[in-house]
Known about the structure:
The protein is globular. With 317 residues, the protein is an alpha/beta fold. 46% of the residues lie in helices and 15% in strands. Strand 2 (84-91), helix 4 (101-116) and strand 3 (122-130) form a beta-alpha-beta unit. Its EC number is 3.5.4.4. This is Adenosine deaminase.
Amino acid sequence: xxxxxxxxxxxxxxxxxxxxxxxxxxxxxxxxxxxxxxxxxxxxxxxxxxxxxxxxxxxxxxxxxxxxxxxxxxxxxxxxxxxxxxxxxxxxxxxxxxxxxxxxxxxxxxxxxxxxxxxxxxxxxxxxxxxxxxxxxxxxxxxxxxxxxxxxxxxxxxxxxxxxxxxxxxxxxxxxxxxxxxxxxxxxxxxxxxxxxxxxxxxxxxxxxxxxxxxxxxxxxxxxxxxxxxxxxxxxxxxxxxxxxxxxxxxxxxxxxxxxxxxxxxxxxxxxxxxxxxxxxxxxxxxxxxxxxxxxxxxxxxxxxxxxxxxxxxxxx
Length: 317
Ligand code: HPA
Ligand code: ZN
């Protein structure tokens, strides 16, 4: 499983920071990290709002472009060692320079340069706004995305707390990103139900949905996803760790696939959810009997849905 070539479309760069990395950086900067790690040394949270809080506290140790350069190298080396050949990472101007365009360019330059030093894996950036930070900050984030769109920044998305605000509040940000030629994706159908998925399709006009799994609760929506070729960035271990499903056996990924929905597989925030791409594959094999042909299929789906140029896409097939 480790050696199967994998494509990952949904990975939060800060969320991929191993606890040791965050502890080391905090130690070097003499920063205190309260309420981040449990007694075992792992990230410690009880529910989704708690997860977001720990995520933001851990991310606060990343204060300079060079911190992000180190993080990028560490994350890509780990992914590469799991067989990942292409990854799209969510990058947040909110954490990288507070949405100031010149500061954002410095962070981005550091991330891109670091990514180019890691052999065997290609990376693209999906700039992401954060739903619970509200539409005004999302507009500034979209401007950062639009100004830096190109060969490396190829997408725009929205993450954060799906219970807060409505997709229609973010139409301006998504229109701005679309006009800059960026591919579009939105987190929905993780904690929100089918209506939440429908709203990002209708209002934000995304071609991919982050998670999207709770669409399974509405057969008409499942049919629509299949008919329109909407690609789901499914993160099974994340959904189990955050309590969306009690265990992987109850996860709808196989039902979705069976009904013709284009599914892909990602880790989301791997150290937070105690997972790796190899472990995701192993679980899908164990629980749903996925074999080589299934894994080849999802890799092909991911290559087709990747926010990259045609030449890169062809090389991924
Ligand atoms: N969902 C929403 N927001 C996030 C996530 C997630 O899984 N990870 C990091 N930010
Ligand atoms: Zn996510």
